[in-house]
Design brief:
mainly alpha, 8 helices, about 280 residues, MRP-L47_sf, Large ribosomal subunit protein uL29m, two-stranded antiparallel sheet, about 5% strand, 4 strands
Length: about 280
């Protein structure tokens, strides 16, 4: 009986092995036939970086089409470097003249670059090593924010042209439980407001009481002191500039310090320098 079971198991294993080889061979033959039939009409996909035209003679490169985990890491040449030379962030004016297709491609390039930089930063922190050129993350973040701004501008223009509305989520100023004002963006709900009791209870929290009034008093005092100190700081800077450079252009000062009364400071005694005026005659 035992020998019979062993013979049956061996026969089953050999049968499964032959079926697996047959399936692999059939799949290989099918793939080869498909490639041969489409070789004249379709080009094979290259596993190298491609160049996408951006603006006229300007180009930006897309990453390789290989699908491996090494795409989450930087080039091995930069692993031992303390500084990696990179360009600047994308500006709004440069993104506004691009098409929607180019913006879509650029967004995924920046997204992939951000994922790679975050992976490298995490790995460097685990290995207690210096992350080379950490400002690359800031440049990618600025570029992505500018790209979102350009896309939002185009969406607003399209909705204003088609429907007369911006298409943005409606928002309004509301007060929280501490009396602080903040912007609330409306969102869709399954139930209308008058039927959603849970939503009404979460939004009907008022503010009041002695502690809240004291907090608001101190908070407004803090804001007033910050505003007052900023105004005095700008006034002192203008006074110092006028003292060192009596013939400075006042239009430039007006554009840089719009909240300072420069005409009044000119006649102030503190703006006069420690020098004797020239007497003509």
């Amino acid at each position: 009986m035992l020998a019979r079971k062993l013979i049956i198991n061996q026969s089953i294993q050999s049968l499964c092995r032959n079926m697996l080889k047959l399936n692999i061979q059939q799949q290989t033959n099918r793939t080869a036939a498909f490639l041969l039939s489409n070789s004249s009409s379709r080009r094979p996909k290259r596993l190298c970086s491609t160049i996408v035209p951006a603006l006229g003679n300007r180009y930006f490169s897309t990453p390789s089409a290989t699908k491996s985990l090494m795409e989450f890491f930087d080039d091995s040449k930069n692993w031992i470097e303390n500084e990696v030379k990179v360009g600047r962030a994308w500006k709004l004016d440069e993104l506004r003249i691009k098409s929607n297709k180019e913006l879509h491609q650029l967004w995924y390039i920046l997204l992939k670059e951000r994922n790679m930089l975050l992976t490298m930063e995490h790995e460097c922190n685990d290995q207690m090593e210096l992350f080379p050129s950490p400002e690359r993350l800031d440049k990618v973040k600025i570029s992505m924010n500018n790209l979102e701004t350009v896309v939002r501008e185009r969406n607003k223009a399209y909705h204003l042209l088609e429907t007369g509305e911006t298409g943005e989520r409606p928002q309004r100023l509301i007060s929280n439980c501490l009396g602080l004002r903040h912007i609330y963006r409306s969102s869709e709900h399954v139930l209308p407001p008058y039927m959603n009791v849970k939503w009404i209870k979460s939004r009907s929290i008022g503010y009041g009481g002695k502690a809240v009034r004291k907090f608001l008093l101190l908070y407004r005092e803090k804001l007033y002191n910050e505003k007052r100190k900023a105004k005095n700081r700008a006034r002192n800077e203008v006074m110092m500039l006028l003292r060192r450079n009596p013939n400075i252009d006042r239009n430039i000062l007006h554009s840089k310090y719009p909240n300072v009364n420069i005409d009044k400071l000119v006649s102030d005694d503190k703006t006069r320098g420690h020098y004797l005026p020239k007497i003509e005659g």
